[in-house]
């Protein structure tokens, strides 16, 4: 089933991209959630792209970390363990990247079991709703699409497309799966502050992912995120594939004012988000290695 990482000769890889800047990608999804590539394949692509470090950030679980780390050790890529949690922030669903969370016992790791149960229950309800809406879709088909575990909405979308109920993944979200649409099913979430505190208590560093999804204008980020920074927020994703250079710079400047890390990544999902590539996003992404150093400085503050 799973492919093992192939050792490769040192001369077959570039050590840094043509620009000469040492770059990283700190937001990547594998088959352990809703990405289509195995952890080893992601690490190989990162090595091919000349990335010095990557973080695997599957939704709500750390199950791919051990395999990614083994491949990363073989290929000489620095692997940062991570996950992406959906947390509640007022009425909004915030995505919180948690870096350096190791697959072992700990306050947040123990909570992940409950989060995974909530996801499974929600997934059952989505299947029921799609059937009520007249679609001939079974849980077994969704599970097969997901490879058994880490089931998320893009897997539902892919099956809907294959069976002719939607034109493409985006259409499946727009008409059925996105927040407020007929097959959207909420699930219980940790509150943002609770998740931040649990992350810090687990010697990890919590970071707001893609802040544009929070319904707050970029000019208001400082006011909006001040309280979270005081609660232990360790960073904000500034170098995101969807952002223009001005917004990336604006968020990085805010991070520096708040004394937290600016981070970045592609949010690669393989063929579920076909326009995004590892390391380069839509082609113009370049996340400097200094982001990793800033995250490590944040982690050092946990002690
Ligand atoms: P889940 O974790 O099951 O709630 O699904 C979250 C995933 O769905 C993330 O990978 C999102 O990028 C993806 N997603 C959320 N909203 C949309 C949308 N409107 N169009 C495409 N993908 C989306
Ligand atoms: Zn995802
Ligand atoms: Fe996200
Ligand atoms: Fe993501």
Structure explained in plain terms:
With 303 residues, this protein is an alpha/beta fold. The chain contains 10 helices and 9 strands. The protein is globular, with a radius of gyration of 19 Å. The protein has helices at 39-48, 65-75, 107-132, 139-146, 153-162, 169-177, 192-201, 221-231, 245-258, 290-300; strands at 23-28, 53-56, 78-89, 92-99, 190-191, 205-208, 235-240, 261-265, 287-288. The relative contact order is 0.16.
Question: Topology, please?
Answer:
Blueprint: E1 23-28, H1 39-48, E2 53-56, H2 65-75, E3 78-89, E4 92-99, H3 107-132, H4 139-146, H5 153-162, H6 169-177, E5 190-191, H7 192-201, E6 205-208, H8 221-231, E7 235-240, H9 245-258, E8 261-265, E9 287-288, H10 290-300
Parallel strand pairs: 1-2, 2-3, 3-5, 6-7, 7-8
Antiparallel strand pairs: 1-9, 3-4, 4-6
Bound molecules: adenosine monophosphate (AMP), zinc ion and fe (iii) ion (FE) (2 copies).
Ligands bound here? adenosine monophosphate, zinc ion, fe (iii) ion
Q: In one word, what is the shape? A: globular
Q: How many strands in all?
A: 9
Q: In this structure, how is the largest beta sheet organized?
A: 9 strands, mixed
SS-based structural class? alpha/beta
- Strand composition percent: 15-25%
Helix content: 25-40%
The run of helices and strands is EHEHEEHHHHEHEHEHEEH
Which regions are unreliable across 5 or more consecutive residues at pLDDT < 50?
Answer: 1-5
| Radius of gyration from the alpha-carbon trace, in angstroms | 19 Å
Give the helix tally.
Answer: 10
Mean pLDDT: 94
